[in-house]
Design a protein that fits this description.
Layout lengths: L1 H25 L1 H13 L2 E2 L10 E8 L1 H6 L2 H17 L4 E2 L2 H10 L5 H7 L4 E13 L4 E14 L5 E6 L3 E3 L5 E2 L5 H17 L5 E2 L6 H4 L4
Parallel strand pairs: 2-3, 2-4
Antiparallel strand pairs: 1-9, 4-5, 5-6, 5-7, 5-8
Helix pairs in contact: 1-2, 4-7
């Protein structure tokens, strides 16, 4: 640990020296941009940092029409959001998604905090799925979704964080002929894309990660 600290101190000192020299070479604006990159890289800001050291349950509530048309979307979305949070939020404990789904199947509820309190969670990450469609015509795929995200305190019921996401379109700039991909395959890919857009509000992420979505659409 001590060796790592010395290495980090050396890297920081070298980085600061480089930044200090830049104004003479290319101006203050360039120096500030370089300093920001050295500190943050390509990472965008974290919207909400309050999941650390918490027991967290993830619940997705779909719009009524989707609930009866394709109930698995909400379940899969909650599962993938939970996985991303577990991988990227330090010292956070995730309530087993199977326990969440079992409780939802067996109980009626109105508020996210009710679910979390029953499962002994500290907070619930709630996803209200307001739109989810994978077709842009009868024979082509292009996913479109809208959702809002909240974090609810399970003891007080207080909403600690709330965000309405802009419409998510995948792929952003083209469609995929249905003959080139199975419907189930495209649905799974789009759910994962949507999960990433939800979960990234709680940890540092590459702000340019969406730039390659069009080319990635055919990776299956």
């Amino acid at each position: 640990m001590e060796t790592r600290s010395y290495r980090y101190a050396g890297f920081l000192a070298a980085s600061l020296a480089l930044v200090a020299a830049l104004p003479a070479l290319s101006g203050c604006t360039s120096a500030l941009a370089t300093a920001a990159y050295l500190i943050n890289g390509n990472n965008g800001p974290v919207d909400y940092k309050g999941l650390r050291d918490k027991q967290v349950a993830v619940v997705c509530r779909p719009m009524v029409s989707l609930k009866y048309r394709d109930e698995s979307v909400a379940r899969d979305l909650a599962t993938h959001v939970g996985q991303l949070l577990s991988q990227n939020v330090r010292k956070m404990t995730l309530v087993d998604q199977r326990k969440v789904e079992q409780w939802l199947d067996e109980n009626n509820w109105d508020e996210y905090s009710e679910v979390g309190k029953a499962l002994k969670a500290d907070v619930v990450v709630g996803v209200d799925l307001k739109e989810f469609n994978i077709y842009s015509g009868q024979t082509v795929f292009q996913g479109k979704a809208m959702a809002s995200v909240t974090v609810s305190d399970c003891k007080t019921g207080e909403v600690l964080y709330e965000k309405t996401l802009p419409q998510i379109v995948y792929p952003p700039n083209h469609v995929i002929p249905a003959g080139e991909m199975q419907e189930s395959t495209f649905r799974k890919k789009f759910v994962r894309i949507l999960a990433d857009h939800v979960a990234r509000h709680f940890y540092a992420h590459d702000r340019h990660s969406d730039m390659g979505l069009d080319s990635q659409a055919f990776d299956f």
